[in-house]
Amino acid sequence: MRNLFPIIGSCLLFAGGITPTLANSLPEITNKHAPYGQPTCKPKNLKKRIAYTICFDSKKRIPKWVMYHVTSEYLKTPKRKSRFKRFRDDPHFNNEAKDKEYTNSGYARGHLVPFKVSGGDRDGDKSVASLGNNSDPDDEKTVFEVNYMSNIAPQCHKGFNGGGGSWWKVERWIQSAMVKKKDEEAYVIAGTIFHDGKVKKIGPKKDIYVPHAFYKIVVFKAKDNKPRRVFAFLFPHDFPCKKRKVKIENFLVSVDIIEALTGLDFFSEANFDEAKNTTTNWGK
Q1: Residue 196: which CATH number?
Q2: pLDDT by residue (tens digit) across 182-222?
Q3: The domain containing residue 29 runs over which residues?
Q4: Which terminal CB of the chain, N or C, has fewer other CB atoms within 10 Å?
Q5: Tally of CB atoms within 10 A around 180
Q6: What pLDDT digit, counting tens, does each position of 132-156 carry?
Q7: How far, CA to CA in Å, does 10 sit from each of 5, 185, 250?
């Protein structure tokens, strides 16, 4: 792939099993992840789940992209303790990284689909996943799936994945500032990007690829007097892991730029102005 990062950098300076009831509703639920079209992915690398759809890169041992839907209901996650804290092996994919392979790697286990959007009553039975005795096993499975290692990629903790980092901030903006406080509804595509430069690899066998960049494309549905809004964030990740002051709006680009870097078509079933720099939607 052509290395577009010098150009982009200049721009950024300025700018368990499932019950029959839940199984029957699975197509309807998972289709909600991709109302505007789904990027291409080899069938063996694609998996639709209750909380998200994933395209897994078995060679790099990390997600290529994920798609998920965020509503205020889905923010009702259980506390990340006990069984909800543990990272888990994905029974569907081969060659995913193991939890212990990240130990002492210098990188955090970064969720592509955030833990904080794995909650809610997904099957409509008026119960949810919780640490209590009345926890819904189907909704528990939804939470467990978000903690699958197939949904994890190496991320800098300082300045990126951790508090105050760019990835952390964009997730808080979606979940708290927009969905929780303003009752917005979001569709998110997140993924990893590599250019032609040297790739860092971690793990005992040095075969877990560290992305050069990550992206999030967020579509907020039309609501009241607000039109549908699209935001495309491109976050460089090929820098030393250290704290830095960031404003997430400085990472806004056009959808076209991310499509050029990934070779993917994100909105095959929608009419968006993909060449438009999404900075113009900020604050709307």
Answers
A1: 3.40.570
A2: 999 999 999 999 998 899 999 999 999 999 999 999 999 99
A3: 5-185+192-227+262-281
A4: C
A5: 14
A6: 889 999 999 999 999 999 999 999 9
A7: 8, 32, 11
